[in-house]
Amino acid sequence: MDTSIPGAFYFPAHTKAVQPMITVIPWIAVFLLLATSTGLLFSRNWQLSLGLLAIQYLGTFWLVGFHWPIGMAAVKLVTGWMASATLGITQFGLPSQEDITEKSWPEGHLFRAFAAGIVVTIVVAATPRVRDILPGIGLPEVAGTLLLVGMGLLHLGITTKTLRVIIGLLTVLAGFEILYTAMENSNLVAALLAGVNLGLALVGSYLLNTQETKQSR
Predict the structure, then answer these.
(1) What are the structural domain ranges in the chain?
(2) Is 142 within 8 Å of 84 (Cβ atoms)?
(3) Residue 121: exposed, middle, or buried by beta-carbon count in 10 A (0-12, 13-18, 19+)?
(4) What distance in Å separates the CA atoms of residue 178 and residue 58, rounded to the nearest whole number?
(5) Angle subtended at Cα 164 by Cα 162 and Cα 167, rounded to the nearest 5 degrees
(6) How far apart are CA 213 and CA 217, in angstroms?
(7) d(CA 166, CA 207)
(8) Residue 155 in contact with residue 168, Cβ under 8 Å?
C-alpha cells in the first residue's frame, strides 16, 4: 500500500477546527434520541409512534456505529426497521379504532412532560458518574443509554396498551444495546440482539391479533 495514503487524510493545520465537529457529531444522535423518545411518550397515533420508533433506531445506529463496523451497526438499523414494519403491518390489518385515553391517573400531557423532565434531569446528573464507572465509553453513549432506558421504563409505567408496551420494551432494549455494543464487539452478540428485537415485534403482533380476536367475539 502506498505510504502516502495515510498522510493524505491528516491535516495538522485544521486539527483545532475539526476536533469540535467530531465531538459534536455523537451528541446530535443523543438529541435525536431525546426527540424521538419524548415524541413516543406523547404520541396518540400508532402511525406516528412507529415512525418515531424507526427514526429512534437511526439514532441508535448512529451511536453504535462509533464502536462497531458499519456492516454490524447496519444490522441494528435494519432489524429495528423490520420490527417497526412488522408492528405496522399488523396494526394496519386491524380495524381502525380511536385512541381512547387510558383510564389511569398519569394520562395528561402535563404529567408526561413533568415525568420526562425528571428523566432528563436524572440522565444529565448520572451520565458523568456512570462514565467514570465504565471507562472507555464516551459521554454520548452513556447519555443515549440512560435516556432510552429511562424513557422506555416511563413509557411502560403509564400505559397498558399492547402496541405501546412493545414500543416501550424495544426502547429499553435499544438503550441497553448502545451500552453493550460499546463494550462488546461480536457477530454472535449482534445476531442475538437482532433476534430479540424481531422476537419482541412478533410477540407484539401475535398479542395484537389475539386481542382483536377476543374483542370481535
Answers:
(1) 26-216
(2) no
(3) exposed
(4) 12
(5) 110
(6) 7
(7) 10
(8) yes
What is 157-183 written as a DSSP string?
HT---HHHHHHHHHHHHHHHHHHHHHH
Question: Please, are residues 62 and 32 in contact by the beta-carbon 8 Å criterion?
Answer: yes
Q: What DSSP letter does each residue of the chain carry, written as one string? A: --THHHHHT--GGGHHHHHHHHHHHHHHHHHHHHHHHHHHHH---HHHHHHHHHHHHHHHHHHHTTTS-HHHHHHHHHHHHHHHHHHHHHHHHSPP---PPPSSSTTSHHHHHHHHHHHHHHHHHHHHHHHHHSTT--HHHHHHHHHHHHHHHHHHHT---HHHHHHHHHHHHHHHHHHHHHH---HHHHHHHHHHHHHHHHHHHHHHHHHHHHHH-
Cell numbers at 145, concatenated: 443509554
Per-residue pLDDT in tens (0 to 9) along the chain, 217 residues: 444 334 333 334 444 444 454 567 888 999 999 999 999 998 888 999 999 999 999 999 989 888 888 888 888 899 999 999 999 999 887 776 544 445 444 557 888 889 999 999 999 999 999 888 887 788 889 999 999 999 999 999 888 888 999 999 999 999 998 988 888 777 888 888 899 999 999 999 999 888 766 655 5
The angle at the Cα of 163, spanning 159 to 168, to the nearest 5 degrees, equals 60
